[in-house]
Each structure stands twice: as structure tokens, then as C-alpha cells.
Amino acid sequence: MKDLVIICPTLNEIKFIDDLVHDLCVQDGLDKEVLIVDGGSKDGTQLRVKELMSRYPHLRLINNPRKTSTAAFNIAFTESDSTYVAFVGAHARYSEGYFINAVKELNKNTCDIVGGPLLQEGKTKVGKGIALAMRSKMGVGNTEFRTSNERKYVDSV
Question: What is the 3-state secondary structure (H, E, C) of 96-133?
Fold first, then answer.
């Protein structure tokens, strides 16, 4: 049984896939599996993941004919045998130590789910404006995982 399975739904993510796979596959001491569950990309995402699989032996590509994130999770979950599951987004970046720190927290048995700070960033002028709104209580309400840098229990992760 693996420590962790990381499940990431994708669809036409060629612009993000290299950074994403690097972040998810970095060696951190965990026995993990990284499942890219692709909904039929037409931009080369699947080919690139197949190329990256030679560099990262714990990376796998799974087909998601239903295309949705929910279907991706359900498909991948049934193919996994791990203690913990991480469901991640393809446009996100994950800092070194993110997953091992999450597993350490879960192993303390003081909570059922763990997340880290969600830092919204944008690349374009519009994206930066949206990111600014997503970092404020005015933009997202009282979702503390988006607006607080404090370590605490929150309603959702």
C-alpha cells in the first residue's frame, strides 16, 4: 500500500503539464503514485505525460471518457491502493514539501482532511484582477482557507 495517491484531472493542459508533473513527482520521501486522469486532450497533453512517465516511474496516465473532474476522481480512486488521497488542480503549483507535510499532519489523527494556503495568482491583467478578488473576503466571503495565513481548523479545504 502506498502512502499517497495524487489524482489530477486534465483536459488540454499542455501549457501547465510540465510544471505540474514536476511539482507532484518531486522526491519527498513518500511512497506515492501520481495519476493524471485525462478527459481527451487534443493539445498534446497525453503525449507529454507519456514522455514524462519515463522520467517519473510513479506517474500514470488514465483515460477519462466522461471528461468531468468528478468522473476523473472516481475512475482514479478505484485504481489506487493508498493510505491517503490528494485531489489536485492542473493549474495549481505545489511547493516542495506540500504533500509530505500534509501526510505528517494527517498522521497526527487530529483532523480528517488537510490543505495548505491557497495563493491566487494571475498572469494577465484580467487574471491578476481576479486573483486579487479571490484573495479578499469581499471576493470570496468567509472562506478562511483563501484569506487566512493562520494555521487553524476551517470549514473547507
Answer: CCHHHHHHHHHHCCCCCCCCCCCCCCCCCHHHHHHHHH
Gap between the Cα atoms of 110 and 19, Å rounded: 32
Q: Are 8 and 90 in contact (CB under 8 A)?
A: yes
How many CB atoms neighbour CB 30 within 10 A? 19
Would you tell me how many other CB atoms lie within 10 Å of the CB of residue 68? Answer: 12
| Pair type for strands 82-87 and 32-38 | unpaired
pLDDT digits (tens, 9 = 90+) for 139-150: 767 776 666 677
Q: What is the pLDDT of residues 43-89, one digit of tens each?
A: 999 999 999 999 999 999 999 999 999 999 999 988 888 999 999 99
DSSP per-residue codes, 45-103: HHHHHHHHHTT-TTEEEEE-TT-SHHHHHHHHHHT--EEEEEE--TT----TTHHHHHH
